[in-house]
Amino acid sequence: MFFGLTIEKLLLIGVIAAFVIGPERLPRYAEALANLTKRVRGYLTDAKSRVKDEMGEDFDDIDWRTLDPRRYDPRRIIREALLEDAPVATVKTAAAAAAITAPLAPPDPPARFSPGEVPPFDSEAT
Questions:
Q1: Taking the mean position of all CA atoms in its chain, how far away is CA 29?
Q2: CB 91 within 8 Å of CB 100
Q3: pLDDT at site 107
Q4: What would the mean pLDDT of 45-54 be, rounded to a whole number?
Q5: What is the value of pTM for the model shown?
Q6: Residue/partner pairs of 10-18 with CB below 8 Å, 24 or more apart
Q7: Interior/surface letters 52-70, b for 16+ CB within 10 angstroms, e for the rest
C-alpha cells in the first residue's frame, strides 16, 4: 500500500468512519465514494487514451518500467558509470610491476621564492 497504510489500518479507519457518520448517512457516503471512484477511473482511462492518441504507434513500444523513478538509485548509477569506463591495467613484466608498486618521491618545491621570503597572500583565493 502507499503512505504506510495497510489493510488493517484501512479497515480500522472504515469502522471509525462508520461510527462517526452513523447508520443514517452511511449509504449516501458509500454511494458518493463509489461515484468518486468511477469518475477517477474514467479520468485515468481518458488520460491514457489521450496519451496513446498523441504518441501514436510508439506508445506500445515503450517499456514503462524503465521510467519508474524507484529504479534510479544514484549510488548504482554512479557505480555503473565508474566501472564501465575504468581501464583494465595489465602488467606484462616484473620491472613494470615493480615500477607500479614503488613509492613515488615527493616533487621538488618550486624555486620562485628565496628561503626567507614570504609568498604573497591572496585573500580571494580558495
A1: 39
A2: yes
A3: 59
A4: 90
A5: 0.41
A6: none
A7: eeeeeeeeeeeeeeeeeee
Quick check: 21 and 29 in contact, CB under 8 A? Answer: yes
Rg over alpha carbons for the chain, rounded to the nearest Å, is: 34
Residue 48 and residue 42: Cα distance in Å, rounded?
Answer: 10
Residue written as grid cell 501514436: 56
What the block records as the C-alpha cell of 42 is 474514467
Q: For residue 52, give the amino acid letter.
A: K
Instruction: Report the run of H or E that residue 44 belongs to, with start and end.
Output: helix 26-55
CA 67 to chain centre: 11
Residues 6 or more apart in contact with residue 100 via CB below 8 angstroms: 89, 91
CB 91 within 8 A of CB 97: yes
- What's the CA gap between 18 and 44, in Å, rounded? 29
